[in-house]
């Protein structure tokens, strides 16, 4: 695609990756993604903000064909989907300086072997003049690595935010015109990589709150001409209350756990609690992560295998633990044949979750009447606790 003009002398460059389905060999990309770079032609200096994944470097170099001189390449984030093509850009513009946070400087040297002489670290709040335009750099760690920063183009009130406020969507829309679609993708993105760092991200939000922002230009997904849409969404994901919602990741081998899940979900609904259930044999972990943003309670469903929880459930519990959602309660339901340490093993896997653990329900073999009664009681207990904590 050719460069697309945002404003006079400001262009969105980069690539739309329609076909990528996995990021970091971990995160599902059902809608592909984009790697946005931005070209700013000041009256004295020309700057490129971010680059593209190296797989797409030829497209970026073609977009730069009519750019005779590049003074700066800004690396807002050292991860390779944004910085991986910097060495190629430097090959074409050997005198260009790479601006980054001080922490990113070392990472760019380690990850991409960018020579130290090309790197110019900038402090938090530092500005550079492009002549008639001014770029200010604001350190915003953990969106999504510790070295990340954003850049604010003062005269045009554009915030270049890289992963922060991004969404994995392949689209020809330059702007987030379909806000419902972008909301979903941005929430998924927040859940997958930023939720664990929400206390730091809250501080980043406070840091940018004083800026007069007319446009947010992330390095994934469409640009926001209505910044309040995505800023308010992030405020809710970070600080909004947990909801009257049970998220139930589970797996079943011989249908005992599945019977319990079906009965339990029905009991929760009868008690006025919403549920999102995820069969870990088939689920998209991005959808599970997204549901965890709002969950008031997590209930893990598992059979017992090799004396412990099913390995897929171990993966789900590990994921919940590292994502650190704001859930307040947790329980376990499931089944066993003759014994095992399912509850102990799972309970030991969630030290990051600040939850009250509610008495688990484990059935020996096929669930009995007593087990169904216990599930009913568990549903009632969760509903009562949600009410007591004002979860809506
Ligand atoms: Fe889009 Fe953290 O890289």
What does the secondary structure layout of this molecule look like, with pairings?
Layout: E1 4-7, E2 10-17, E3 22-23, E4 27-28, E5 33-41, E6 46-49, H1 57-63, E7 72-74, H2 80-83, H3 86-92, E8 97-100, H4 102-112, E9 119-121, E10 127-129, E11 134-139, E12 149-153, E13 158-162, H5 179-193, H6 198-209, E14 215-218, H7 227-239, E15 245-250, H8 256-270, E16 274-279, H9 285-292, E17 297-305, E18 308-309, H10 311-323, E19 329-336, H11 342-347, E20 356-357, E21 361-364, H12 369-388
Parallel strand pairs: 6-7, 7-8, 8-9, 13-14, 15-16, 15-17, 17-19, 19-20, 19-21
Antiparallel strand pairs: 1-2, 2-5, 3-4, 5-6, 10-11, 11-12, 12-13, 17-18
Helix pairs in contact: 5-7, 5-9, 6-7, 8-12
The structure holds MU-OXO-diiron (FEO).
Q: What descriptors fit this protein?
A:
single chain, 392 residues, alpha/beta, Metallo-beta-lactamase, Chain A, Rossmann fold, 2 domains, seven-stranded mixed beta sheet, 21 strands, 25% strand, elongated, binds MU-OXO-diiron
Concise account of the structure shown:
With 392 residues, the protein is of the alpha/beta class. The protein contains 12 helices and 21 strands.
**Could you say how many structural domains there are in total?**
2
- Rg: 24 Å
Which spans of ≥5 residues are poorly predicted at pLDDT below 50?
none
Helix vs. strand class: alpha/beta
**Widest sheet, order of strands:** 1-2-5-6-7-8-9
Q: Number of helical segments?
A: 12
Describe the largest sheet. 7 strands, mixed
Q: Which ions and ligands are bound to the chains? A: MU-OXO-diiron
Fraction of residues in helices?
Answer: 25-40%
Percent strand? 25-35%
Shape: elongated
Euclidean distance between termini CA atoms: 45 Å
- Architecture per CATH nomenclature, i.e. the level-2 architecture of the largest domain: 4-Layer Sandwich
Number of strands: 21
CATH top level of the largest domain?
A: Alpha Beta
| Annotated CATH homologous superfamily of the largest domain | Ribonuclease Z/Hydroxyacylglutathione hydrolase-like
Mean pLDDT: 97
- Which fold does the CATH topology of the largest domain refer to? Metallo-beta-lactamase, Chain A
